[in-house]
Amino acid sequence: MSVNHDELLRKVNPIYFSAKGCLILLAETGDADLVNFCNEIDKEQLTAATTAQAPQITRGRIISLDVRYNMWNVLAEETDCQTIVDLPCGYLPHSLVAARLKKNYYGFDLPIVIDEISAVASKFMTDREKNFVHYHGVDATNYFSMRNALRGVEGKICIITDGLLGYFNRNDLKAVCENVHRLLREFGGCWYTSDSQFTDLMAITYAALSGGGREEMLAANDSGRKQIADSEDENIFSTGTLEERRRFMEACGFSVKSFRYPEKLRVIPSLKDEPALMNKILSAYGEIEEWVLTAEEINSAEKIDLPFAQKFSVSDDVLSVQLRGRLDTITAPKLLQEYEACREKFSFAEIKIDAAELSYVSYGGLRVLKIMCDDLEDSSRFKILNAGKEVRKFLSADFPDAIKKG
Predict the structure, then answer these.
(1) CATH fold of 309-404
(2) How wide is the angle at C-alpha 227 spanned by C-alphas 238 and 245, nearest 5°?
(3) To the nearest 10°, the Cα dihedral for 208, 289, 237, 74?
(4) Do domains 5-295 and 309-404 have the same CATH topology?
(5) What is the pLDDT of residues 40-84, one digit of tens each?
(6) Confidence of residue 375 (pLDDT cuts 50, 70, 90)
(7) Is the dihedral of CA 80, 181, 330, 379 positive or negative?
(8) How far apart are CA 88 and CA 108, in angstroms?
(9) Which of 294, 297, 298 is nearest to 258 (CA)?
């Protein structure tokens, strides 16, 4: 039986569950937009993936999510950029906020997220507001997927990132930063991110609530991150210090400035009826930084990837697949769809992947390769041929015996 479009996206992008979990928690604040969106999203598959936590930890998460959500809204209002890029947009109603401000909104996320959130958001917008809102399925490691989504945009852009950078492996994090840098060099503008102290914010919130230490929340957050992260190949935003993260961004060509949360955020809506606790938490946030990054000029050649292409053939009991370009979140579903179609039509006991022209593989692509390998009765008959240095290095951890020279 062939796999439908949604199922293909789920297989390639299983980590989208966490974004739905954030919306469900935020809806507990009673905010009308959040409640409306929460009532509309499909929560059927989420229940089994949700881990129960202590009430104080759950409340700490809700408050910290409320703070980040409303910080996003403040930044969207304050920026002098007419175009806001929400990377990643998740399932939150930021599009409504931007549209009401009469600012152009571009929500970027995994295709499976965009398919659902774009339909949900449209239910709560006026026709005039819809003119400001644009949702696009992108892979943040793929520059052209983001650049093509911004076709026709003029003037400076404001990119806002909240809760993303710590989930990449080292390779993908570097690619994302390079791509954002490239966009800012072309359009101008800035990149706001709370990810510089993403876990610290939650830990401080919990400590203020419980009157204890931060360790329990840090442990809970680390456990959750590892459940949904693309790999155990941790990066500077999941393990490094604040200064190490700053140096990393500067090495990527960014000028890094910052402000403290209380400078922008005066009220925590979910705590409006508990002013003493709200003031206590806001005071504790005095050590939390939000970064404002701008792109400095760098002297490096831009890498141009070939367009993605694939060619399948079956001879005897061998399925041969030639791949070209990038195998990422956008292109991996195409590979999986064609592979599933071949599996229905032909019998084969061996798979050979010709990776000579494969320039990049993300974890979305890796998942599809693992599916193909796991389908074989004898996994030793899964072979990756002619891979270049970077692709070979990335795949060798999962396919140490499959990488061949020819």
Answers:
(1) Transcription Regulator spoIIAA (3.30.750)
(2) 10
(3) 90
(4) no
(5) 998 876 654 445 567 778 888 899 999 999 999 999 999 999 999
(6) very high
(7) negative
(8) 5
(9) 294
Q: Which tens digits make up the pLDDT trace of 89-144?
A: 999 999 999 999 999 999 999 888 999 999 999 999 999 999 999 999 999 999 99
Q: Any residues with CB less than 8 A from the CB of 134 and at least 6 apart, and which? A: 104, 105, 106, 107, 149
Instruction: Write out the two tokens for 71.
Output: 């910080």
3-state secondary structure of 109: strand
Question: How do residues 12-38 score in pLDDT, each as one tens digit?
Answer: 565 667 889 899 999 999 999 999 999
Domain residue spans of the chain: 5-295, 309-404
Which residue type is seen at 110? L
CA–CA distance, 364 with 218 (Å, rounded to integer): 27
Task: For the domain covering 5-295, report its CATH number.
Answer: 3.40.50.150
CA distance 151 to 280: 45
Lowest mean pLDDT segment, chosen from 46-50, 164-168, 239-243, 258-262:
46-50
267 CB contacts (<8 Å, ≥6 apart)? 70, 278
Whole-angstrom Cα Rg for the chain = 22
Amino acid, single-letter form, for residue 277: L
Length of the chain: 406
